[in-house]
Write a structure and sequence with these properties.
21% of the residues lie in helices and 31% in strands. A 7-stranded mixed beta sheet has the order 2-9-8-10-11-12-13, sandwiched between helices. It has a 5-stranded antiparallel beta sheet with strand order 14-18-17-16-15, covered by helices on one side. A 4-stranded mixed beta sheet has the order 4-5-6-7. It has 2 domains: 248 residues, Rossmann fold (3-Layer(aba) Sandwich), CATH 3.40.50.12780; 73 residues, GMP Synthetase, Chain A, domain 3. Strand 5, helix 2 and strand 6 form a beta-alpha-beta unit. It is an alpha/beta fold and 407 residues long. Belongs to the ATP-dependent AMP-binding enzyme family. This is Acyl-CoA synthetase.
Length: 407
């Protein structure tokens, strides 16, 4: 793979103003900047990336070339997806400039959707220079948003994370001067639960959350640990692109944003408890209005997203309740770092509420906490303590997965 080595510490990109000179620090090459000059992509290219360097090389090569590109981490490719990728690479004539993404599969089987660098670059004006941690799996929507940002604007450097655990990424972030992190709420729950001493030394100026619902306690904790950081929540999907961007440190978004008529901004509406969006940065061929399958609730002048429809509802003794609401009560406890709520089968009543938690509180303390804040049938009867926050390859933890387990 052709490349040119740049001396460690040499500044690239901020003098010339060329975004292609932005610095990239990849695992295996830490301490040395690499400017990559790969061969052009002329047709349709599928890259099964074994690491960030493979993926970033392909993204850099795509810029200014007429072909189509699909990047996916090899670890995410099972036999079924591999067959779909083969069909994709051998299919119809290529469309210029298309970037194909695989959805996360959180709402079912992963799908292939087409974007462009323009639809992935959602900022209208150049942002302040940042050195971003890049923790996401190659080829995902969140990964492409950061890569597109770096390709589009000067001064947006990328530092790849060796892994999602704080003992993996924090030393790299501190050594390389990372001052901005885009990641999921679960990523940050894992970091805060670890109590890693490196967190006290880390001074980000920007923290961006996306990919999952975010609750007020997590936002408050991030502000407390990183008081100098601007904390942003983004609601986005591979299909719809970025639709909501909130900087005010409050969960959800203002109800005044619903039913906006400005066609230059994404449209938002709630119908039957479900959020609908009208994208302006969406993938090719999406409908004008997209049903997101995300549950929307009105809380104190805000629209709060609590979980996925169909995965959030539990039936306990014939009474329906929201797993997300129970989870939010648990997460409001100062010693609970992460929680997942689901129904567990039980004699006579059919099912009861159960929870998995990463917590420093005892089971008795959690039962008492929930009893004072929830109706009796919604109080978890079984708790399972986990040592760490479980993350998927997309940095999510399926918080609303309502699993049924035999007692």
């Amino acid at each position: 793979m052709p490349h040119r080595r740049v001396a460690p510490g040499e500044r690239r990109g901020r003098r010339s103003g060329d975004p292609l000179e932005n610095r990239i620090v990849c695992e295996g090459f830490r301490g040395t900047w690499w400017r990559l000059d790969p061969p052009p992509l002329e047709r349709r290219t599928v890259v099964l990336a074994d690491g960030q360097l493979d993926a970033l090389t392909a993204a850099r090569a795509h810029l200014g070339n007429p072909g189509e590109l699909l990047v996916v981490a090899r670890e995410r490719v099972d036999e079924t997806l591999y067959k779909e990728l083969r069909r994709f690479s051998e299919g119809r004539p290529a469309r210029p400039g298309r970037i194909w993404l695989t959805t996360s599969g959180s709402a079912g089987r992963p799908r292939l959707l087409a974007h462009t660098l323009s639809s992935l670059t959602t900022l209208a004006a150049p942002p302040a220079p940042h050195r971003w941690l890049l923790p996401y799996s190659p080829g995902t929507y969140a990964w492409w948003q950061l890569v597109a940002l770096s390709l589009a604007f000067p001064g947006q450097d990328l530092v790849t994370a060796p892994g999602p655990r704080p003992d993996q990424w924090l030393p790299v972030a501190l050594a390389e001067g990372v001052d901005a992190v885009s990641a999921t709420p679960s990523f940050w729950r894992l970091a805060l639960a670890s109590a890693d001493p490196g967190l006290a030394e880390f001074r980000p100026r920007q923290i961006t959350l996306g990919g999952e619902p975010v609750d007020q306690p997590l936002l408050d904790r991030l502000r407390g640990v990183f008081p100098s950081a601007r904390v942003t929540w983004i609601y986005a999907s591979t299909e719809a692109g970025a639709c909501v961007v909130v900087h005010d440190g409050k969960a959800g978004f203002p109800v005044e944003w619903l039913e906006r008529t400005d066609s230059t901004k994404p449209g938002l509406r709630v119908r039957d408890g479900q959020l609908y969006v009208r994208p302006v940065h969406g993938a090719d061929g999406v409908p004008e209005w997209i049903a997101t399958s995300d549950r929307a609730e009105f809380v104190g002048g805000r629209v709060v997203l609590s979980g996925r429809l169909g995965q959030d509802q539990l039936n306990v003794g014939g009474l329906r309740l929201s797993a997300g609401q129970v989870r939010d009560v648990l997460l409001a406890h100062p010693d609970v770092h992460w929680a997942r709520v689901f129904a567990r089968t039980a004699p006579f009543v059919g099912s009861v509420v159960a929870a998995e938690v990463v917590s420093d509180a005892s089971e008795g303390e959690l039962v008492s906490w929930c009893t004072n804040r929830l109706p009796g049938h919604a109080v978890p009867r079984f708790f399972t303590a986990l040592d760490t926050v479980p993350l998927t390859t997309t940095l999510k933890s399926h918080l609303n997965k309502a699993a049924r387990r035999n007692g």
